[in-house]
Amino acid sequence: MDYKKIIADKIRENLVVDVESIEKLIEIPPKSDMGDYAFPCFSLAKALRKAPNLIAEELASKISKEGFEKIDNLGPYLNFFVDKGAFSENTLEKILKEKDEYGASKVGNGKNITIDFSSPNIAKPFHVGHLFGTSIGNSLYKMLSFEGYNCIGINHLGDWGTQFGKLISAYKRWCDIDALEKEPIKELLRIYVKFHAEAEKDPSLEDEGRLYFKKLEDGEEEEVQLWKKFRELSLKEFEVVYKLLNVKFDAYTGESFYNDKMDAIVEEIDKKGILVTSNGAKVVMLEDYNMPPCIIKKSDGATIYATRDLAAAEYRKKTYDFYKSIYVVGSDQKLHFKQLFKTLELMGHDWAEDCKHVSYGMVRFTDRKFSTRKGDVIFLDELLNEAVEKTLQVINEKNPELKNKETVSKTVGIGAIVFTFLKNTREKDIVFDWQEMLSFDGETGPYVQYTYARGSSILRKLGTSQGKIDYSKLATPEDFDLIKLLESFQSAILSAIDKLEPSTLTRHIIEIAKAFNKFYNSNRISTEEDEAVRNARLKLTEATTQVIKNGLKLLGIGVVEEM
Ligand code: ARG
User: How many angstroms is it from 156 CA to the middle of ligand 1?
Assistant: First the structure.
């Protein structure tokens, strides 16, 4: 049952004028004495030529109360108090009927959405910032798919550019082949760092690097083979991380994929009459929009990151005819995407407005700073494994008898990191703090997973309730607060999608977990003597675990039955 729709219909029935978007205006009041839903009448004032509180008063007296305990007005607000028994019944029955599909819809209508996310750079470490973006992109992918969109996850690998010339030079000079086979990214990073250190003493190394890149661009066998090797070895390591996170992509079309599409894109920009020469480079001027020029070709004739992104945008439109094209990339690239989208617009692409940069903040560690050039990085697989190990320690203390400790630690430890990334609004910087993140209390992944496990354990012990349930027995404020949150689960997903902001859903799941723990602590289930009450509470427990599971899944996090 969709209460917002029912309420909107009731309001509409009583209006002489037709007003759109009533449903969207319906609010959930902050306090339960203001009703379960409220409709602010301000927006009707103009059409009805009446004061909002008068409108609210009239509607309150006219509207049929069917299905509601009470409908009245508080000033300009029309307040709806649902019939609690019916509301609980509808909500819980729906959850337990739809199970893993609860919260899903077809609003996306199969429309294509490309999501460019993760996109690490070959031969450079996959760093913790990329992990942040990977978590956001993955959960957007899951939520949008859940709501009926057809998502295409694209890994726009940084697999082209002048750094490959430097790397080839470094490889020929210093590479330890055994180390490269064993831990490719570490070895590539080591020689890359060495290259920069040596180049400071001997600048001719830079020329050598440029020369190798030129050879690579010209398709010379040896350089191409080396580049392929670096790419493959790096991808293999990235896959380890993706596997730990359970993340998949539909395409690995990285920057190099667009090499043969460069001439065409430059020509097209030129034909549109917006390509100008500036200091020897070819650029699109954006000063009218308060931005520096978008460089298309450098003075040495080489194309750059932006050129490849322009080609990629066109390719994606042609290949997927997207409804929206999303780029999940750190906020340090804000200007790049503004320039990119503006250039696409100036090229005459009306779909430029369907391109969105979903930006996110930086990840900081309380005790250190990083610089790739100095080789000072955190390796993601190590980070993820550290989380797993630390979780194992906690479990060994709290529940040493637990079976499957390894699997549980993996789900909980990795889940804790992902949860941390998705908990706050994405533009906010994150401070990486193990203790906070792995704590079983507070707004953490382990807390939510523990809540799920607690619910599951009650159901295991007491069994799920069978037969007809008397939902009117769910009468305490704790019961009803929880049920209301379960009911608005889908709204939370839709709102997260609307803002491309996973934290909206994460917060909702946290609220559910908190409400469940409150319900659990104030209404003992196992010692409850009234069987009807106990059955109704078990039903609520079952529904809650289902919703938490669905929610975490959309964030890319698993659940464990015991921990
Ligand atoms: N490889 C880039 C980086 O690590 C991110 C690429 C994002 N996607 C894009 N289409 N530009 O910073």
Answer: 6
CA of 355 to the centre of ligand 1 (A): 15
d(CA 217, CA 18): 63
- Whole-model pTM: value is 0.93
For ligand 1, the distance from its centroid to the CA atom of residue 327, given in whole angstroms, is 9
Separation between Cα atoms, residue 254 and residue 123, nearest integer Å: 13
Check pocket membership of 329 for ligand 1, CB cut-off 6 A: yes
CB of 3 shorter than 6 A to ligand 1: no
Ligand 1 atom closest to the Cα of residue 337 is 11
**Size of the chain, expressed as the number of residues it contains:** 563
Q: Which of 10, 84, 130, 473 is catalytic?
A: 130
- Indicate which residue of 4, 84, 127, 410 is catalytic: 127
φ, ψ of residue 72 in degrees (nearest 5): -140, -175
Q: How far is CA 393 from the centre of its chain?
A: 29
Considering the candidates 124, 142, 282, 508, report the single residue annotated as catalytic.
124
Q: Is 124 in the active site?
A: yes
Domains and CATH numbers, the chain: 3-82 (3.30.1360.70), 112-260+305-365 (3.40.50.620), 405-554 (1.10.730.10)
| Nearest-5° Cα angle at 364, 361 to 369 | 125
Q: What is the pLDDT along the chain (563 residues), one digit of tens a residue?
A: 678 889 999 999 888 777 778 888 899 898 888 899 999 999 888 888 999 999 999 999 999 998 899 999 999 999 999 999 999 999 999 999 999 999 999 999 999 999 999 999 987 778 888 999 999 999 999 999 999 999 999 999 999 988 899 999 999 999 999 999 888 888 998 999 999 999 999 999 999 999 999 999 899 999 999 999 999 999 998 999 999 999 999 999 999 999 999 999 999 999 999 999 999 999 999 999 999 999 999 998 888 999 999 999 999 999 999 999 999 999 999 999 999 999 999 999 999 999 999 999 998 876 665 555 555 677 888 889 999 999 999 999 999 999 999 999 999 999 999 999 999 999 999 988 888 999 999 999 999 999 999 999 999 999 887 788 999 999 899 999 999 999 999 999 999 999 999 999 999 999 999 999 999 998 888 888 899 999 999 999 999 999 999 999 999 999 999 99
Question: Which DSSP state fits 89?
Answer: H
Q: Is 357 a catalytic residue?
A: no
